[in-house]
Design a protein that fits this description.
Ribosomal Protein S5, domain 2, four-stranded antiparallel beta sheet, alpha+beta, binds (3R)-3-hydroxy-3-methyl-5-(phosphonooxy)pentanoic acid, 325 residues, six-stranded mixed beta sheet, 9 helices, Alpha-Beta Plaits, 2 domains
Length: 325
């Protein structure tokens, strides 16, 4: 019985300039580019086994069989791998995260990046980094940014072929940290996939998109110059712009909780008093605090004294997705 298997590891990423809104929801072609860095301490480890004896794809996440929606998403993704490789076989996929689901860290990015690398290798598809990034994008847009290493830019591109992510600089270029303040571990009511589709209903989205090239330029140069103040103001502006769009979409999306705003205000005050910190918030209530690595333990201590912060997770810029031999 022929079996083809491979295992890969990938890290989630945190976007400094966000992806919010799709031109093509099926291909996950974004309305603008985005910039992120991978989170080294947080990992998804995925084994893929294509097996001629299977009659359907199977998925287990953290030791539990996946629900129907996740399984359908997996099969849609594996259909692309089957199409690219002309493999008819079904696969069994076992995925483990070392961070809790619902912890405010987007697990779909590392999930589809690890899956893309493992599945492609298992069926002997020899893909370049750009092709792997494109493949991961089919699973979840932000997953394309977890393929390359370090600080990464996803160029929105014109089509499926040229919408992929590339490294701007490697992880060791700048000693930053992301300290995530967990204020809620509840599953969010509206997924980012649904959010991307209604982004254009906000009257603010057109202005946000029109200014995106300028924000990408400022963020990229802040990274290249290691200019923290410049990075802090563009990161907070970009996060606030995305949430303004979310709050003014139809239906309106309010991802913040009262504690989210309390943390954001505290972080802004700490920066005013000289601590190198800024905040960014994804499609959920938890707050990512970006800081110079030397300030990370002070940030974690201060966060733990804010009422409603249940715990913190800390990570540094990390590598891209890779095979586990
Ligand atoms: O890749 P998705 O569909 O999970 O979208 C990610 C959306 C944000 O996390 C809010 C922003 C981003 O660029 O990561």
């Amino acid at each position: 019985m022929p079996t083809y298997s491979a295992t890969a590891i990938a890290h989630p990423n945190i976007a400094l300039i966000k992806y919010w809104g799709d031109r093509d929801p099926r291909l996950h072609l974004p309305v603008s580019g985005s910039i992120s860095f991978n989170l080294d301490k947080l990992t998804t480890h995925t084994q893929v086994i294509f097996n001629s004896e299977l009659h359907a794809d199977a998925l287990s996440i953290n030791g539990t069989p996946a629900d129907e929606k996740s399984l359908r998403r997996l099969s849609n993704f594996l259909d692309i791998v089957r199409q690219w490789s002309a493999t008819p076989l079904f696969a069994s996929v076992v995925s483990e995260n070392n961070f809790p689901l619902g912890s405010g860290v987007a697990s779909s990015a590392s999930a589809f990046a690890a899956l893309a690398v493992a599945a492609a290798h298992a069926v002997n598809l020899s893909l370049t980094e750009q092709e792997l990034s494109r493949l991961a994008r089919h699973g979840s847009g932000s997953a394309c940014r977890s393929i390359p290493s370090g600080f990464v830019e996803w160029q929105c591109g014109e089509s499926d072929e040229d919408s992929y992510a590339q490294t701007i600089v490697p992880p060791e270029h700048w000693q930053l940290a992301d300290v995530t303040a967990i204020v809620s571990s509840e599953q969010k009511a509206t997924s980012s996939a649904e959010g991307h589709q209604i982004a254009a209903t906000s009257p603010l989205q057109a202005a946000r998109v029109a200014d995106a090239t300028q924000r990408l330029d400022v963020c990229r140069s802040a990274i290249l110059e290691r200019d923290f103040d410049k990075l802090a103001s563009i990161t907070e502006l970009d996060s606030n712009l995305m949430h303004a769009v979310m709050m003014t979409s139809t239906p309106a999306l309010f991802y913040w909780h009262p504690e989210t705003l309390a943390v954001m205000k505290a972080v802004a005050a700490w920066r005013q008093s000289g601590l190198p910190v800024c905040y960014t918030v994804d499609a959920g209530p938890n707050v990512h605090i970006i800081c110079l690595a030397e300030a990370a333990s002070e940030v974690a201590t201060r966060l733990s004294s804010i009422p409603g912060v249940a715990k913190t997770l800390c990570a540094r810029p990390g590598p891209g997705a890779s095979l586990v031999e």
